[in-house]
Specification:
Blueprint lengths: L1 H136 E4 L18 E4 L9 E6 L10 E3 L19 E3 L13 H18 L3 E4 L10 H11 L2 E8 L7 E5 L4 H4 L4 H21 L4 E8 L3 H5 L4 E8 L6 H18 L3
Parallel strand pairs: 3-6, 3-7, 7-10, 8-9
Antiparallel strand pairs: 1-2, 2-6, 4-5, 8-10
Length: 386
């Protein structure tokens, strides 16, 4: 019984266990179904959420990108002007030195051109002033037929040239007459004296003659130099010396040849200078030294005009020249004087002298000419009390 009971209990227990198992299985199935559905739903929900989240993320990303783009765009927009400004500034800074250099070069070139132009203009102006000064400082002077004794001249188409000392001048004009140097001069003759009287001494023209050669050719130095060449060289050196001392200089012969006879030369000097000095060398061959041609101590001659009014002046000028030459070491012949009736003296109305600086054997080099010019100039200073 007991065993039967136990069996029944076991059977019942098995039934119950089975039922319980079926119930549990049924619940398990349901729970499994629910769990699956729940999982599915959860998965769908998750997928939905992920999709939603993805959309949101995409939206956010898009928005962020857009925002970033906008920000970057804004930044670029904001930076662009700054960058442009900086670039422009940098360009300006980099260009500035070039521009400044260019401007400086241009300015420098302009200044240089202006300077060149100014220098050129100044040079032109200086040249013009120089030309004007030369024009103002020199003047050609011909023989005026209205001047006293001009009608006695036979050769007078030439011109003397007046050189002015300028602002520092002393107002004194010296006629410097380079002896000889007139082509055809020996083919003409003029009256020895304006009153027609005869010569009282012998020289190139013998005493007693009433006419003389208009201009002689002069002698020739022992070295072959024509006297006319030496006298012209001497005249140029003397001209420079006198100009340096403030004298105006009337160059009676300002070239190798001048078509002015002795009377024309003398008359031009009379009317345009303060003193007349003719330059010569004697025809002897003894190297005798310098001397001047003095007024002959002949009453008839000394009483003839214009000699009567001027012979003392001639003598005083001659003595001053010899003193000046002597003091500068020039050899002096005898007492430095030789009497001679000259056409020059016979027609002179101002202090006038013929100075013989030696003879055909005397030195006439440049150094000697300078020494002679200084001596003559010193004599002129002495005569005019300077």
């Amino acid at each position: 019984m007991r065993k039967k009971f136990i069996c029944q209990v076991i059977i019942l227990s098995g039934i119950l266990t089975a039922c319980a198992g079926n119930a549990g299985k049924s619940r398990g199935i349901d729970e499994s179904k629910v769990s699956v559905e729940s999982s599915i739903t959860s998965a769908e929900s998750k997928e939905s959420r992920e999709a939603t989240d993805l959309k949101v993320v995409k939206k956010n990303v898009t928005a962020s990108q857009e925002e970033t783009t906008v920000q970057e765009s804004t930044k670029e927009t904001s930076v662009a002007p700054e960058t442009a400004t900086e670039t422009a500034k940098a360009k300006e800074e980099s260009t500035k030195p070039v521009e400044e250099t260019s401007k400086k070069e241009e300015t420098s070139k302009k200044e240089e051109n202006l300077k060149k132009s100014a220098d050129s203009n100044q040079a032109d102006s200086n040249q013009a002033d120089s030309n004007q000064a030369d024009s103002n400082q020199t003047k050609e002077i011909g023989l005026d037929s209205g001047w006293e004794y001009a009608s006695f001249s036979k050769i007078n188409s030439g011109k003397a040239v007046l050189y002015k000392a300028g602002q520092n001048g002393n107002g004194i004009t010296i006629a410097v007459n380079a002896g000889h140097g007139t082509k055809g001069g020996s083919s003409q003759k003029t009256l020895c004296h304006p009153d027609g009287s005869a010569k009282v001494t012998s020289g190139t023209t013998k005493a007693g003659a009433t006419t003389a050669i208009a201009v002689s050719e002069g002698m020739t130095f022992s070295d072959g130099t024509p006297e006319s060449t030496a006298t012209f060289e001497m005249a140029k050196v003397l001209k420079d010396e006198l100009l340096s001392r403030g004298y105006n200089v009337l160059m009676i012969r300002d070239g190798n040849d001048v078509q002015l006879d002795n009377i024309a030369r003398t008359v031009i000097a009379n009317n345009n200078s303060s003193a007349h000095i003719a330059l010569h060398w004697d025809s002897t061959s003894s190297n005798k030294g310098a001397f001047y041609m003095g007024v002959p101590d002949v009453a008839s001659y000394k009483s003839m005009e214009p000699v009567a009014s001027n012979w003392k002046k001639h003598e005083a000028l001659g003595k001053s020249l010899i003193n000046g030459l002597s003091q500068n070491g020039t050899k002096i012949f005898s007492k430095g004087r030789m009497e001679m009736d000259l056409t020059q003296t016979s027609y002179s109305t101002i202090p006038s002298i013929d100075i013989e600086l030696g003879d055909k054997t005397s030195d006439h080099g440049k150094d000697t000419l300078r020494t002679l010019s200084k001596g003559i100039a010193d004599g002129i200073d002495s005569y005019f009390g300077r």
